[in-house]
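Hey, resending since the last one bounced:
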Amino acid sequence: MTPPDNPPIRVALVNERNAESGLRGFVENLPKWRDATLVLAGVAYVLGYLSWALYASDHGWGLAPVLDAQYFTAGVLPTLIVIAACFFGWCLRLLNQWVRKPVSSMAATIQSVLEIVGFVCCVVGFILRFNKTVAPVSVWLITAGGLSLIVSSFLSRKKSDSWYHRFVLGIAWIYLPLIGVLAFAFYLARIFPGLPQPLGGPRPECVQLDLDVSKLSTETLQLLAPDWKATPAAESRIARSRKLYLVLQSSGYLFLQTNREKSSANNQPFRLESSAVTSLVPAADNNRP
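The structure tokens again:
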């Protein structure tokens, strides 16, 4: 009787060693994950602060406070844009390396098929352009044919196509940061102003403030609490404000505006020191859309 090729004890030892090596590799990679997390957190904070700084400047609040935990949340979506740009840059780098290597016979066959399909789609699309009833179909055919020809060129290793590879990749490297900047600008203009405050955004929330009148000027008090009237016999020096819209609450200041309008031309934004506010109460917003 011959002994088994893999005794149970030997199999158990091999599995234990694989588990130990896997755990050791995970532990060894922890510093890399830690460094990557710290870098991403820093990028999120900087982009979040930049979003708030531009928003505060546009609304006439001056310089936004530098230290605020809300910037981490506000910078999550811009950081995803940076990660996507880095991923596509990494893909372009791999593509640049791949076009320098020889391709298999199957890839060459696919390249020939794509060339024929692309040429036929372009010819049929240009012919259909003269027929107004199917003009939208011709646009799709021409687009599909152009993409087929571009993909087929990257499967080709002819010297005549090498310059085209460099040209397309160069254009892609130019457009990559440009698209990233445009995506960030779109975020600032369309997405960020509508984000609720728990998600790091400046969407106004209706509140009422209890104000220490001894720390406010007469003009500011008249703006915030027009119904409060000082009397010599008044014991309370606390005034309840009218309904205001809170945009950002930092450790030193409250950024408020008089109505829900996003444009500073239609409301009066202002910055109030936190020391002048004794309490903050959520209020019912009758103007909420």
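The longest helix spans residues 8-58.

Sorry for the duplicate.
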